[in-house]
Write a structure and sequence with these properties.
single chain, about 150 residues, alpha/beta, Rossmann fold, about 50% helix, globular, disordered N terminus
């Protein structure tokens, strides 16, 4: 964990849609998530994990205990961020503000999302907001430590 780009550790937040797409559909979201977990520092928060578990249960009837277990294994080395709700009213969809707060509080470099409400904010201060494909393309052109 903790790979570096240009001498600095890259810190990334994957929004709930990326987690859900990776788990259910695989493809580019899974590729991006796998790359991030292997090469970058990943941030998470209770709100993010709760949303993933709720949506997997509601839309796909996946048992919440199973979802939590799968997330726990994937996020074993992730850094947990406390979201307080102090950041609000930034995103068009206020339900997405916790993603921005998680990223800002954890000094993230990137947010990976497919959510247009978040993508329109790119960049959010020093934080790039990228699709999974943009994240992978960006990572391939950045120097990596082996």
């Amino acid at each position: 964990m903790g790979n570096q780009t240009g001498g600095q550790t890259v810190i990334v937040v994957f929004d709930s849609g990326i987690w859900i797409s990776a788990i259910k559909y695989r493809g580019v979201p899974l590729e991006a998530l796998t790359f991030g977990l292997e090469h970058h520092d990943v941030l998470t928060c209770d709100e993010l994990e709760g949303e993933v578990v709720r949506i997997l249960n509601r839309k796909f009837a996946i048992d919440p205990a199973d979802s939590r277990q799968q997330l726990a294994e994937l996020l074993e080395h992730a850094k947990r961020i406390l979201v307080t709700g102090k950041l609000s009213g930034v995103c068009r969809d206020p339900k997405d503000d916790f993603i921005l707060e998680c990223a800002a509080t954890g000094s993230a470099d990137r947010i990976v999302t497919g959510d247009k409400d978040l993508l329109t904010l790119d960049p959010y201060g020093p934080i790039r907001i990228l699709t999974p494909r943009q994240y992978l393309d960006d990572a391939k052109h950045s120097p990596r430590r082996n």
